Amino acid sequence: MNAPPKAIAGVSTFVDDRIGAGNFLKRNMRKIFPDHWSFLLGEIALYSFIILLLTGTFLTFWFKPSMGEVPYTGSYAPLYGVHMSEAYASTLHISFDVRGGLLMRQIHHWAALLFVAGMTVHMLRVFFTGAYRKPRELNWIIGILLLSLALIEGLTGYSLPDDLLSGAGLRITQGVAQSIPIVGTYVSFFLFGGEYPGHDIISRFYTLHILLIPGILLALITAHMILMWVQKHTQMPGKSRTEKNVVGAPFYPAFMIKSGAFFLFTFGIIALLGTFAQINPIWLFGPYTPADISAGSQPDWYMGFLEGALRIMPAWEINFLGHTVTLSVLIPALVPLGIVMTGLALYPFLEQWVTGDRREHHIADRPRNNPHRTSIGIAGITFYGILWLLGANDEISANFHIDLYTTTWFGRIAVFVGPAIAYWITYRICIGLQRKDAEVLSHGVESGVIKRMPNGQYIEIHTPPAEDIAEHIRGKKEIPVLTSAEDGEGIPPKSARTALGRLRTKMSEAYGTDHVPLTDGHHDGHHEEEHAGVGTGDRKELH
Amino acid sequence: MIGTGISVNSITARRRHPLARVAVVALALGLLGGGYALAAPNGSTADAAIASGKADDVAQGKSLFVAHCASCHGMNAEGTKRAPTLIGVGAASVDFQVSSGRMPAADAGPQAPRKPRPEWATDEAVNQLSAYVQSLGGGPTVPSAEQVDPAKGDPAKGGELFRANCIQCHNFVGAGGALTYGKYAPSLNPSTPTQIYEAMITGPQAMPVFNDSTITPEQKRDMIAYITHVRSQVDPGGSGLGRIGPVTEGLVAWVVGISLLVLASIWITAKKRRAA
Asked: Cis peptide before B104, with omega less than 30 degrees from 0?
């Protein structure tokens, strides 16, 4: 009765006999995926990317990547007869004269914003839970590459319509190219095929945007997914979760359905935004001419931190051996991006070097249990966030009536002070949360029941925490510390003798020392009452 | 007179007509009178007011000035430490500042903001005040209704001029933008066509003057046509998000997009198969 119909059985046997799909499917369809909401964040990026490929293909049907000048004759009246590039005219055509064109453009642009935002939150999840640790460092690096490429993909994409705003971005890109010492001018001429803006940049960016970068993105995403599949997911600590298993739902049917539903959610939200929220209204910006610039010219959000760095940078310029070095452009273009991207890429290896931890990790850390890592992450977010905020300083100034120079000076100071403050606050919060965890384990949780003792004392009865919560807390794992103990003759180990070695030992101690070890109270009911006194004799005297 | 069908002889014949002298004198008088009326509108505003039986605008304007403006600008508009002289600023300047509520200024900030007009500042009072200040030393006058009629302008041409001259401070749709030291370029959305014209010819506060040799009156009208056309346009792509560009777009992507998706992911993973 359960045998499949012949029509299906015949085909599946044919395929199975030739490519052995049955075994592959049997093995992989039962693959277990952990059930934690934060594990879906990366899928925002994945599904946005699929939407980007589809809508982008639609847009290429009408877009003309040419800087040839034409008078506009489409249906948008306030630009009628204005001379503009074919790229801009064809984008107007898509927006006003192609059925569904504007919707597709808007979905494409919103999907692009959510693509990078999804990657960002996914990366933060991986960072704060330590999911980048061995054996997943390579996949982490692939992720950083994906994020960097996504920024370039975004930059080339918003330059394509050749409107006034994208032209401003292009001009800054050229400025950055020119600021590179010695070779800057050559790089600029090479990139633009002559004097800025030339006639080539749109078609060059078009090729990069629709062919090269998406191709690399697709390849890297595939590699990212295969590695994830092979190495399996990390999982949050909890009951019966070990370094050797994965607890969750099988890919088929449970996870596949959830994943499919999440794709529909992503698509639905992007479509809602594309329908009800106008994005990149190029007809309002007007065509690009290098002579014009608008107030409130900002890049898309993911370039905002670079914009902010540029805005708060003092106008420094030096002359070195006859070469002008434009530090006011070079520093903001390279330093923040370098700190953020290089820092992220190197972090797994730096952490391994500091802790000497060569173990494999499949159980994720709760952020509080590695306070220094969490603090470094929050300090990084603060650094990025302040630059990001300052990228919009003119809008902040105009809309909240704050002096523009005040925002600039705020940014110049906050970009250094802010991360330090954030680091300290985060560290204290982590330690506080760890203490709370230790307390829950050793004292139990408040039950809300007040008990009067024979001697008149009132206590609140604490009950042991629920098993899953207790197991979740007990999942805390020690961070290894390098041994720096001197041997019997007072000689430190070889690795700790140089200045760098001593620094490494010190950092290792700071990074790994557990200030709030969990004392798992093996207490009975009596014990727990003793700890939970409320209104003891001392307190009574206060009243 | 080739091709017109009128021979030189026939014109010569008309010149000798008995009524020709009368006609020429009448034409000359008409041109002179009309030309004078066009060239010297200052006095004629007051004269017309008297002729039409209304009170003298200049005199009324002076009393308004003394009551509302003189404490800062001086009894004879000669200026004080607190405010500049108004001699020579012209009626257009007064009309712009008072009709937009910027003057009388409320307090000494970096810039006088647009605000509701005080009760006394009716259209008539503004006209009288303008006439008084105009009588002090001339200056740019209030443009006629025709000069600022958006329907008579070419928005496409105006758009190009707008992008070349205005948007670096006022933003690409005139939504406003920041300047230094707490000053700002205000939003153009509440400005009337007359106020936009007046702002260009008088250069109020931090704004430069765009006189008629820089931008001709026709070009000004084109720009007004563009500004009013674009600001009345219904955003075809949904909510315009303030029309200030990628800042609000990024905000919406995170606050709406990512928040909703995080909620969705929490909701989806919270759904567990019930134990059978």
From this structure: yes
Nearest to B269 among A40, A117, A280 (CB): A40
The partner residues of A70 in beta bridges, in order of sequence, read A84
User: A446: which strand partners?
Assistant: A462
What residues have CB less than 8 Å from A305, skipping those under 6 apart?
A: A336, A340, A384, A387, A388, A391
Residues B8, B10, B11, B12, CA torsion sign: positive
How far apart, in Å, are the Cα atoms of B53 and each of A111, A311, B49?
A: 68, 61, 6
Does the domain spanning A31-301 belong to CATH 1.20.810.10? yes
| Residue from B248, B249, B254, B263 to probe the interface with A (highest A Cβ count within 10 Å) | B249
**Phi, psi dihedrals of residue B132, rounded to the nearest 5°:** -65, -50
Q: Residue B163: which of A164, A261, A298 has the nearest Cβ?
A: A164
- Yes or no, beta carbons of B253 and A110 under 8 Å apart: yes
Contact A278, B237 (CB under 8 A): yes
pLDDT in tens, B121-174: 888 889 899 999 988 888 888 999 889 999 999 999 999 999 999 999 999 999
pLDDT 10s digits, B8-49: 566 666 777 777 778 878 888 888 777 766 665 554 454 544
> Going from the N-terminus, what domains does chain B have, and what CATH number goes with each?
55-137 (1.10.760.10), 150-232 (1.10.760.10)
Q: How many CB atoms lie within 10 A of CB A96?
A: 16
**Closest-CA residue to A308 (of A396, A383, A392):** A392
| Best residue of B165, B254, B261 to probe chain A, by most A CBs closer than 10 Å | B261
**Structure tokens given for B254:** 């995170």
Instruction: Indicate the SS3 state at residue A533.
Output: strand
DSSP A133-196: STT-HHHHHHHHHHHHHHHHHHHHHHHTT-BHHHHHHHHHHHHHHHHSTTTHHHHHHHHHTSSS
d(CA B111, CA B102): 9
Domain ranges of chain A: 31-301, 442-542
| Strand A318-320 versus strand A249-250 pairing type | unpaired
Residues of B in Cβ contact (< 8 Å) with A397? 178, 184
Q: Is the dihedral of CA A379, A384, A387, A393 positive or negative?
A: negative
ipTM of the complex: 0.88
A261 chain-B contacts, CB cut-off 8 A: 268
Q: Give the strands of the sheet with A458-463, arranged side by side.
A: A445-452, A458-463, A533-534
Most confidently modeled range among A6-15, A49-58, A360-369, A526-535:
A49-58
Token couple for A435: 């203490």
- Model confidence at A531, pLDDT cuts 50, 70, 90, reads very low
| Model confidence pLDDT, tens digit, residues A58-114 | 999 999 999 999 999 999 999 999 999 999 999 999 999 999 999 999 999 999 999
CA distance B233 to chain A (A): 10
Residue in chain A nearest B268 by alpha carbon: A258
B73 min Cα distance to partner chain A (Å): 27
Hey, of B154, B173, B227, B247, which one would you mutate to test binding to chain A, going by the most A CBs within 10 A of its CB?
Answer: B247
